[in-house]
User: Fold this.
Amino acid sequence: MKFIHFADAHLDSPFRGLSFLPTDEYERVRASADESLTRIVDLAIAERVDLVLVAGDSFDSNKPSPASQLFFAKQLQRLTDAQIQVVMIFGNHDYMQASDLLVKQSPYFKLLGDGQEVERADFVTKSGFKYSVTGFSYAENHIEEDMIPHFPPRGSEYAFGLMHAAQKAASGNVYAPFALNELKDLQYDYFALGHIHAGQVLADDPWIVYPGNIQGRDIGELGGKGCILGTVDEASGKTTIDFKPTASIVWRQVSLELAESLSKSELEARVVRELAQKCQGKTYFSLELRGTEYLTGDQLEFWADEHAWEGVSQQLPADSRLVDVRFAVKGVVKLSGSDQEAFKTAEAEVLADEQLKAAAKTWLKKDQLAQELFADPQFIAGLKQLVKVKLAERLAGLKGEIDK
Assistant:
């Protein structure tokens, strides 16, 4: 028996923070999740799998656009037309009712647990191998209850679990919180999870797996994205799994260390060289420039500008792009005693969290992206580093000696 397990397609995802891209490129980005899902269906048909498990958040909201609904229905019909069994659930983003789906009813399609009730369904492959799938769909955005006690004991057949959830250890978890030992105690052969966008295997005896989302949407979702292809030895019940990348865009972070001052052209050439070496197909890069104290004020402004990123992107292979630049310092310009005191005073006044929020108050009110950025500790840390460099440069008149 063969199966595919995927989750978190998030069709209709807005891909925030990339609106500066050229229109045709931005449209390709918006279509990237569709492309990844198409590749997963292509893989299922090519591998002649018996089962496709869809572990929630197929849509980014519970009111998906007509276009994404029609697209999703078409892809599922490709599977059912090939007589591949599809079993899916809704997650916390696409909490809906079965009647909301535009998927045609078929013996090969099953939505589990409509109305948030744990449900078990039994199936048989064409070779006569018996298996069951047990799971539930979200009917609301949050589920505070641990749903595992509602899962029935496994029978003699091969048992799949299907759930969109997070472990109880996660802070503020309202997504069907569970303890790992609870899932292990059920002794289902393969527990197909969704919700966590980083692929990870929580256990391999029995298998408890997050495949990750099918397409990275920002720099927080790094690396290859795709689905799990599983193979079950029907005689022994032994399962092996293999991750299959299907995303058309890969996100990567690259850190470039500066040890001396460089001209604009020298630094651009170095950036292009570093990024080109790390392209894996079409790659979107976030670049961290470490040693920002070696940059002049003009250079800082240049690398903070999206047009500079576009210039680098045009020199990268495979339509790869630089879409984010962050700054970090290794030290600050040496200051005299009086300037050092002035620096400490300015640092305390400017870099306090409440001062940063006050300075950005208008921006935060008008821009959803700004709210997300200010909730990101990495962004705040980078912002503070950049401000430190600016303060030190201003006080030293850009003539100070570098403190190594």
